[in-house]
Amino acid sequence: MTTEKESNVLFSKSPTGIQGLDEITGGGLPRGRPTLVCGSAGCGKTMFAMQFLVNGVRRYDEPGVFVSFEEREQDLIQNVATLGWDLPQLIEQEKLLIDHVFIERAQIEETGEYDLEGLFIRLGYAIDSIGAQRVALDTIGALFSGFTDTAILRAELRRLFRWLKDKGVTAIITGEQGETTLTRYGLEEYVSDCVVLLAHRTVEQIATRRLRVLKYRGSRHGTNEYPFLIGADGISVLPITSLELDYASSTERISSGVPRLDAMLGGQGYYRGTSILVSGTAGTGKTSLAAHFADAACRRGERCLYFAFEEATSQIVRNMRSIDLDLQPWLESGLLQFQTARPSLYGLESHLVTMHGLVEEFKPRVVVMDPISNLIVVGTNAEVRSMLSRIIDFLKMKQITALFTNLTQDGRPLEATESAVSSMMDTWLLLRGIESGGERNRGLYVLKSRGMAHSNQVREFLLTDQGIDLQDVYLGPSGELLAGTARYQRVAEEKATALVREKEIQRRQRGMERKRQIMEAQIVALRAEFEAEREELERIIAQGEVQEEVLREGREAMARMRGEGPGYNTESEG
Amino acid sequence: MQTENNATMTEALEAGHWELRLYVAGQTPNSLKAFANLKRICEEHLTGQYTIEVIDLLENPRLAAGDQIVAIPTLVRKLPAPIRKIVGNLADTERVLVGLDLRPRPL
Predict the structure, then answer these.
(1) What is the pLDDT, as a whole number, of residue A5?
(2) Of A21, A77, A343, A56, nearest in space to A209 by CA
(3) How far apart are the first and last CA of chain B?
């Protein structure tokens, strides 16, 4: 019976339904085998195990047995009630069974040999009574504090895990982390198919939860440490990337909301589903550019989700009105949604989860994050980078075009701070203050834009009360950029020069016209002269012809006269 | 079941009765040893004052949860209260007596 079953379930996986984890493990935990979930106290082991069972019942129609060695049934029920998991209902439907195995050391005396057959019988009975396919043992290490004979316990645990395999149930065994070992009682020795490590760390006063798939026999899996969060729906793991970069690439282009910028980007704007980075120092118009992009999306009838980490919704709407961009109608029609929160309020993971949740819920085609530099407050550069790459990946998979703004600091190498994220961006626009002639003006460059011919020109970036305008930037005599007043001056100068040039051209044109007229007059005169000569010649030719005719007629008349005596000729001959 | 227990409990208390339950899982050597050891100890120390109920969990698996049985064999002293549990084949008589509160616990 088991051999056939085993060959069938080889490498088959049991989905956990935990967001992200199934991606890391390529489909879930090994079906029909035990998985060890270990970590320190409060790291979420029990939650993990319970979620595996609850999802099993709800999504995959696999009943589950939860054997709790620590918490009582009522406590478990209460603990997860806030997540909307109605355990009593599942228990009533005979889809879930909770068995609280309580071992009171003080009550127990040991004498002589024993085994843990009682536990096997309880478990077997529970599994059979509801046809369970999933089992959680939380935490089995409690047995070691209940019984003293560790030799027996170890032998029995070995037997238990083998027995679970024979039963064909997918089991989660939780274990408290030991000081030098993965679990305090070395459970990893017995459960060797799959080991998941949970950690709960506090870095710079911000608590982060991490998950790592330490081992997964016979399966490829993500090996990184992934942040996870216990949120409103339980655990969600946020994989950095879906191991492969296999998302579809669209050739569709969408407008940046600024026509001249579209022109710089190969004439058509951004590619759909790409990520765009707009970086610049304070006050260079990043938000304005982002708002135009959002506006353009709404004009196309697409939903836009705008994460504002710095300003309140009303403030952005008001500020954008001053450059003739009214976002209010989009807010009212529901095409535009703002999500405003100071990054420091949550940890990075929390942000990620919130973002994922919102994106799933709102289903935008365009996402704006303004600015991502504020996230650095919450995490280190590396963490922010990994978080952003996860977001970018997630958005790309969904073919959502994302625009990120990034505040760069004055004095620092302009592009260094973004080196972390730039490689993940498809288009990188740089807004820069240009200081000259006692003015500070804004310049816009397209630093890169993958897959399109883009302008290599710097444009002056103007925020006018009619919106964003991009102007050509002029170079001064020594090659410096001219912007603002200097540009106006230059424009005026150029206009004056152009006017002079135009006059000159007109003058020359007139001169040429005159010359042409003279030439034409000469042609007429020559032609007239020629005509006169031609007439004379023709007259002479005609005269000659007449004379010739006359002569010919004379000769003929003479011949006719001589013709009266042709015999004369014969006579004289004869 | 609850009322039944209460009833036997009262009776037992009146008679100064010892109600013992031995949980086993089939006729394993340890189970048989445990039963033999228990019988002997009771005859020696609780003559005429005890009842032994043997529960085979292979026949009644649902009963395991009620007395929180994990190890087999387990002897449960239901009465007199409080409940005591002795795990193992009861090979060590001294420890069984301590476990049943018939001897003071060694310090």
Answers:
(1) 42
(2) A21
(3) 39
Q: Is the ipTM of this complex over 0.90?
A: no
Residue contact B92–A146, C-beta within 8 A: no
- Return the CATH class of domain A2-237: alpha beta
Q: Which residues of chain B are within 8 Å of residue A72 when distances are taken between CB atoms?
A: none
Q: Determine contact: B34 vs chain A, CB below 8 A.
A: yes
Give the whole-angstrom CA distance, residue A458 versus residue A486.
15
Sheet arrangement for strand B18-24: A108-110, B84-87, B74-79, B18-24, B50-56
Q: In angstroms, rounded to a whole number, what is the distance separating the alpha carbons of residues A76 and A64?
A: 15
Rounded Cα distance between A279 and A285, Å, is 10
Q: Superfamily for B2-98?
A: Glutaredoxin (3.40.30.10)
Using a CB cutoff of 8 Å and minimum separation of 24, what contacts does B59-63 make? B61/A121, B61/A122, B61/A124, B61/A125, B62/A125, B63/B23
Nearest to A53 by CA among A133, A119, A139, A125: A133
- Give A361-373 pLDDT, tens digit per residue: 888 999 998 888 7
Q: Show me where the domains of chain A are located.
A: 2-237, 253-472
From residue A28, how far is each of A56, A97, A190, A195, A566 by CA, in Å? 11, 22, 20, 12, 139
**Helix and strand counts by DSSP (H, E) for chain B:** 4, 4
With an 8 Å Cβ cutoff, are A113 and B30 in contact?
yes
Predicted TM-score (pTM) of this structure: 0.62
In the Cβ-directed half-sphere of A202, how many Cα atoms lie within 13 Å?
A: 3
A572 part of contact set with chain B, CB < 8 Å: no
- Greatest extent of chain B over all pairs of C-alpha atoms, in Å: 40
Q: For the domain A253-472, what is the CATH code?
A: 3.40.50.300
- Look at the block and give the residue holding tokens 């991009």: A470
Q: Which residues of B touch A122 (CB under 8 A)?
A: 61, 64-65, 69-70
Smallest Cβ–Cβ distance between A102 and the set B23, B68, B86 belongs to B68
* Distance in Å, alpha carbon of B30 to nearest chain A alpha carbon: 7
